[in-house]
């Protein structure tokens, strides 16, 4: 299954990130949970998958919490199903069957405790009103019991761990992190999250936190070399800042013109990732209209004080301060020395131009591209 979630071509391109791999290895051996925090598309999941490929003497499980069902009943079955699927080393064609309780009941796990948990889950699901808290408890206990009785060390690798908080929308679950912490025992979890400020404090109670940013220039050079890109590394690094996806996208031909096209043409890699980051972040915040206007203000003039933003918004300082706090909470802006800025300079470039109407359905006219290159 690792060849599906992490194809060999992607593995061959993996570059740098030695520090984070070292932390994952060290902490997993010490029995410490670790979570990688960082913006979308920065390479957190790739680091996690590289750990799975390289890890020795351990049974690695990969679970994507963005794709797993978020009702307690289905979550319990699908979480246990993912554990069993990876633990038994099944082929991807069998995966969907493992998401059903009927398949799990028939498995030979050589663990009476794990089998008992599956039976308990099935019995609970047969009730008119299942105990949702109990189901989540059983799910998170499962890898611990399986590891202990099989004598095999299990490391559960979770993409977008913060999705677990969706379970708290159900009346039967008040504090899902407390259930997780109580049940995991000495089973090690390595995870990622694209949400940072809003979840960091809660997750710090259960995880060692590592924040993943852009790659260094040397790491970027290594990546471009493996990809066979003969580019001006200084120019690529200046424009893409060490972002792995963006660096690869602009490393063919004229880096400046390629950057503009990738950022402003709707099929471009930079355009689509910035668009996804922008709208998914705003969807987590309240008051989309004023938040968008605030971001447009900061895209045109970064590093403004609260009073300056208030004047441009035509809103009182307390109202503006609340808006800015919400944007910080969803990682779109930062505050340094009493000045507010958009967190990611490339996202700032995208917002400034796209909301000024500079987005293109197809290739950019050469004359316009030349003008944009001068402004860049």
Protein described:
The structure is a single chain. The protein has 376 residues and is α/β, with parallel strands linked by helices. The chain folds into three domains: 2-211, Rossmann fold (3-Layer(aba) Sandwich), CATH 3.40.50; 215-253; 269-375, Winged helix-like DNA-binding domain superfamily/Winged helix DNA-binding domain (Arc Repressor Mutant, subunit A). 54% of the residues lie in helices and 9% in strands. The chain is built from 20 helices and seven strands. It is globular and about 70 Å long. The model has no long low-confidence stretch (mean pLDDT 93).
Secondary structure topology:
Blueprint: H1 2-5, H2 8-13, H3 18-30, E1 34-37, H4 44-54, E2 59-64, H5 72-87, H6 101-105, H7 112-125, H8 132-150, E3 154-159, H9 176-183, E4 188-193, H10 200-203, E5 208-211, H11 217-226, H12 233-240, H13 244-249, H14 255-264, H15 269-283, H16 288-300, H17 306-313, H18 317-329, E6 333-336, E7 339-342, H19 345-354, H20 366-375
Parallel strand pairs: 1-4, 1-5, 2-3, 3-4
Antiparallel strand pairs: 6-7
Helix pairs in contact: 3-4, 5-8, 7-8, 8-9, 14-15, 14-20, 15-19, 16-19, 17-18
What are the main properties of this structure?
single chain; about 375 residues; alpha/beta; Rossmann fold; Arc Repressor Mutant, subunit A; 5-stranded parallel beta sheet; two-stranded antiparallel sheet; globular
């Amino acid at each position: 299954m690792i060849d599906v979630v992490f194809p060999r071509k992607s593995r061959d391109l993996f570059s740098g990130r030695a520090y984070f791999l070292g932390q994952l290895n060290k902490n997993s051996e010490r029995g410490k949970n670790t979570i990688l925090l960082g913006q979308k598309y920065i390479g957190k999941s790739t680091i996690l998958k590289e750990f799975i490929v390289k890890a020795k003497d351990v049974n690695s499980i990969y679970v994507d919490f963005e794709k797993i069902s978020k009702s307690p009943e289905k979550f319990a079955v699908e979480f246990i199903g993912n554990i069993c699927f990876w633990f038994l080393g099944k082929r991807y064609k069998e995966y969907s069957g493992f998401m059903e309780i009927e398949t799990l009941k028939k498995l030979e796990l050589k663990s009476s405790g794990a089998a008992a948990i599956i039976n308990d889950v099935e019995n609970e699901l047969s009730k008119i009103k299942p105990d949702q808290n109990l189901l989540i408890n059983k799910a998170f206990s499962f890898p611990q019991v399986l590891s202990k009785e099989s004598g095999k060390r299990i490391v559960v690798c979770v993409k977008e761990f913060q999705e677990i908080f969706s379970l708290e929308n159900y009346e039967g679950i008040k504090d899902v992190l407390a259930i997780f912490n109580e049940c995991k025992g000495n089973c090690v979890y390595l995870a990622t999250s694209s949400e940072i400020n809003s979840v960091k404090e809660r997750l710090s109670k259960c995880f060692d936190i590592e924040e993943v940013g852009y790659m260094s220039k040397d790491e970027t050079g290594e990546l471009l070399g493996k990809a066979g890109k003969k580019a001006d590394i200084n120019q690529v690094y200046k424009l893409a800042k060490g972002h792995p996806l963006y660096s690869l996208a602009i490393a063919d031909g004229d880096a400046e013109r390629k950057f503009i096209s990738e950022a402003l043409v709707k099929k471009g890699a930079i355009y689509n990732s910035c668009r996804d980051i922008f709208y998914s972040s705003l969807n987590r915040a309240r008051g989309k209209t004023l938040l968008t206007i605030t971001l447009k203000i900061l895209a045109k003039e970064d590093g403004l004080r609260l009073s300056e933003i208030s004047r441009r918004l035509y809103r009182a300082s307390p109202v503006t301060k609340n808006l800015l706090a919400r944007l910080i909470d969803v990682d779109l802006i930062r505050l340094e020395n009493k000045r507010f800025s958009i967190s990611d300079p490339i996202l700032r470039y995208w917002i400034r131009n796209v909301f000024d109407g500079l987005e293109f359905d197809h290739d950019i006219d050469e004359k316009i591209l030349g003008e944009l290159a001068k402004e860049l």
